[in-house]
Amino acid sequence: MNKELCFIIEGENLYMEQILVDYENVPIFYVCSNGEKEYLVLRRDLDQELYIVVEISLKNLSDMLQGRLSMREALMREDGFWAVAAGEDVEEDEVIRKEMPEMPVEDLPYEGAYYQVADQETETYVQKIEKRRLGSDTWESFWKSGRSVPEDTEYNWLAANLLELEIPDTVFEEYVTMFSNFVSSVQAKSRKQGSFVGIYEGSGEHTIQKFENLEKICEKAVIEDLTDAA
């Protein structure tokens, strides 16, 4: 299914990712993505189709969705934002980059207003974002710690595969941390053997297999609980 193109910001196509709040089936607070980064969008005027678009980090998005950061704070955490006035179509939108002091705070959610998940679809999205955040935070801190690794190694394939599995967040974090520690411990050895990527991929496949086994155990436990309850 094709995603809806919502905006073109500085040459980047932003597609609808998740509606957070709607009014009479019109999205007024939602998340867009260009496939790499997330953008928080507020429709500030229903009649004139005026929008505020803010690039948002996974951490801030996750914190807002889980009530650790207010909606207003999430919209004002960056240095600037884009004010968008809708045209006849997306290509004709008026898009203006502005600094954060120019933010029309009177149009933002009330100070101290926190987002509340309203349905299962959004809850699933919240869990997906949290897992991505956990993976992103772990890899970023690990690879920025000064360790030498091959520049052409693709590190995100493991996280992408793990996101397809329905695993509790705490367990996900535990396994990602375990994998990072493993890579750290074998790197010196792999440099001697010239096969860091092979060790990485082997460990990654093993980790995914353990996740899949855990998922099966969880499913069996749920079925047994339902059977006992009946």
Summed up:
The protein has 230 residues and is an alpha+beta fold. It is 44% helix and 23% strand.
Write the layout of secondary structure elements.
Layout: E1 5-9, E2 12-23, E3 26-33, E4 38-45, E5 50-56, H1 58-65, H2 71-75, E6 80-85, E7 94-99, H3 120-143, H4 157-162, H5 169-193, H6 196-229
Antiparallel strand pairs: 1-2, 2-3, 3-4, 4-5, 5-6, 6-7
Helix pairs in contact: 1-3, 3-5, 5-6
Q: Would you mind describing this structure in some detail?
A:
- By secondary structure, the chain is an alpha+beta fold.
- It contains 6 helices and 7 strands; from the N terminus they run E-E-E-E-E-H-H-E-E-H-H-H-H.
- A 7-stranded antiparallel β-sheet has the order 1-2-3-4-5-6-7.
- Helix 1 runs antiparallel to helix 3.
- It is globular and about 50 Å long.
